[in-house]
Amino acid sequence: QKEVEQNSGPLSVPEGAIASLNCTYSDRGSQSFFWYRQYSGKSPELIMFIYSNGDKEDGRFTAQLNKASQYVSLLIRDSQPSDSATYLCAVKRTGSARQLTFGSGTQLTVLP
Amino acid sequence: DAGITQSPRHKVTETGTPVTLRCHQTENHRYMYWYRQDPGHGLRLIHYSYGVKDTDKGEVSDGYSVSRSKTEDFLLTLESATSSQTSVYFCAISENSGRRSYNEQFFGPGTRLTVL
Question: Could you point out which of A11, B9, B12, B16 has its C-alpha 20 to 30 Å from the C-alpha of A31?
Answer without folding.
Answer: A11
